[in-house]
Amino acid sequence: MTYRDSNGSVPGAGPRPGGGLDLQQLRTFLAVHRSGSFTAAAQLLRLSQPTVTTQIRSLERRLGHTLFDRLPRGVAPTGEANDLAARIAAPLDALEVVAGTGGADASAPPLPLRLAGPAEALHALVLPALAPMVEEGVRLRVRTGPADGLLDELRSGRHDLVLSTVRPRGRTLLAEPLVDEEFVLVASPSWSRRIHRDRLTRQGASALCAIPLVAYDDDLPLLRRYWRHVFGVRLTCAPAITVPDLRGVMTAVVNGAGVTVLPRYLCQDALDDGRLVTLLEPEEPPINTAYLVRRPGPAGHPHLEGVWKQLVAAASRC
């Protein structure tokens, strides 16, 4: 957010007054810098947005320069803001860790950890890995949804951890690659016999022109990606069935609805027991990376680090 008067200077700015900087203002500044939004920072700090605005204005007057420029969505830090964040982040984070241990009732159980991600990956990968931690006292509140929306909610403090198939941009979130999803072209055994895999190998996508396609969206994102990566052509067909959950897509295909593309982790059991058949085994199948994403700074939940490590360890065994 910009606070310049008509000649481009910061209103009220002058020589920097003596004395140290206000820790609360610095804490608020760091929250805005990391979240990219005054609104998100207010939610994270449990302050009103006018309070956040007032504190940032006061800090700018004290420093004598602007810290944030307004964008259509959120704010962008100035060069001076980036320099300030680099200097204060580590000391403030260390102080938050110390202060956080004394501010709560040690006898009270921690609040549930708020975890979010795509329903299919949570079902197949995340919840099986975290279920044993419930006996250790971990409590979870799980939400599903599209990646972009969940990442925005993570920035604003509504989640503690997000599994995302989209890598977040910028420095407002920390992302670690967790697992590579391999996509496979599958059908039921009956459709596999009718398609003839040797014909599919010779003719490519043209061998599938008359086969019903099943997808989780009318845009066929996974199928389009597979067609482009493996066959080198653009998919123009309309789906026969759409189900907004890949588990539903798999159920339809297992029962003979047609052909689809699924992450291997989701359909491996069906492939192993013969309910599904892989139609092609390309040398370089299309893949997509899933990331574990959190806000920077000290962990806001006592079980966050443990859950993070548990998921990384489980992914290494996949």
Automatic annotation (TrEMBL):
Segments of this protein annotated with the region Disordered: 1-20
InterPro entries, per the entry: LysR_HTH_N, LysR_subst-bd, WH-like_DNA-bd_sf, WH_DNA-bd_sf
Keywords from the UniProt entry: DNA-binding, Transcription, Transcription regulation
Family matches, as Gene3D superfamilies: 3.40.190.290, Winged helix-like DNA-binding domain superfamily/Winged helix DNA-binding domain
Limits of the HTH lysR-type domain: 21-78
SUPFAM superfamilies reported for this sequence: Periplasmic binding protein-like II (SSF53850), Winged helix' DNA-binding domain (SSF46785)
A Pfam family annotated for this UniProt entry: HTH_1
Assigned protein family: Belongs to the LysR transcriptional regulatory family.
Annotated protein name in UniProt: LysR family transcriptional regulator
Organism from which the protein derives: Nocardiopsis codii
